[in-house]
Amino acid sequence: MFTQDELKRKVAAAAAEYALSCLDADSVLGVGTGSTVDCFIDAIAPHRERFRAAVSSSERSTQRMRDLGIKVLDLNDVEDMPLYVDGADEIDHGMNMIKGGGGALTREKIVASVARQFVCIVDASKVVDVLGTFPLPVEVIPMARNVVARRLREMGGEPRLREGFITDNGCEILDVAGLKITQPAQFEAQLNDIPGVVSCGLFAISGADLALVSSQEGVRRMHGPTAQRDI
Ligand code: 5RP
């Protein structure tokens, strides 16, 4: 029986192998945040000469990559990114995700938006039929915390402030429980429209292109029903 940590390392190793097959010496790799991504950084670091550099979605990942000798660029200096690799808190069969358990959702969404391909790396416990069991993180401007929380309650959620946590952007996180997200892209658009919301952890308007899912049986690939690319 593999532990969850071993499953994370296995999917990270598979993602590193996949990433290296997509990258060349001029490529910039987008890197997400979290414990699974930490394993991915460890797995790709010995091969850092095979790509130009990385762009990071958090101070945490930046530090880890620099410590391991991976060059990290500012996103402002990057125009093209073949690949973005990140974990998720939940992913459904339509490749919609809840992210932001580590609080890096806004930078993750920004970096992912530049990449041509989003590769999600998870263990099988994160694959769900309907998103929402994991409380949805919503990053808010601190002065708007209560007005946004009231709107989220009207929308059927139970928001709770992530106590003592400030994002890399100087903002706060409301974790919204009690949701059953059956129309993820529509719901994401509604959340994006609330004044005071910086971004939400729903990645549905633009979801993952490919998921690598590790379980006791090995690492399998999952594609969305409308996947355009032959990955
Ligand atoms: C951070 C994230 C992470 O990808 C998500 O929380 C999964 O983390 P982990 O790999 O530690 O389970 O969105 O903001």
Please trace the helix and strand order, writing H or E for each element.
Answer: HEHEHEEEEHEEHEEHEEEE
Strand proportion, as a percent range, falls in: 15-25%
Number of helices: 6
Outline, from the CA principal axes? Answer: globular
Q: Outline the biggest β-sheet.
A: 7 strands, mixed
Cα distance spanning the termini: 30 Å
Per-chain topology:
Elements: H1 4-22, E1 28-31, H2 35-44, E2 53-56, H3 59-67, E3 72-73, E4 83-86, E5 90-91, E6 97-98, H4 105-114, E7 118-123, E8 136-140, H5 145-154, E9 158-161, E10 172-177, H6 184-192, E11 197-200, E12 202-203, E13 210-215, E14 218-222
Parallel strand pairs: 1-2, 1-4, 2-3, 4-7, 7-13
Antiparallel strand pairs: 5-6, 6-12, 8-10, 8-11, 9-10, 13-14
Helix pairs in contact: 1-2
Ribulose-5-phosphate (5RP) binds at residues 32-36, 86-89, 99-105, 108.
Commentary on this structure:
The chain is an alpha/beta fold and 231 residues long. Helix content is 29%, strand content 24%. The chain contains six helices and 14 strands. Strands 3-2-1-4-7-13-14 form a seven-stranded mixed beta sheet. A four-stranded antiparallel beta sheet has the order 9-10-8-11. Helix 1 (4-22) crosses helix 2. The radius of gyration is 17 Å and the shape is globular. Ribulose-5-phosphate (5RP) is lined by residues 32-36, 86-89, 99-105, 108.
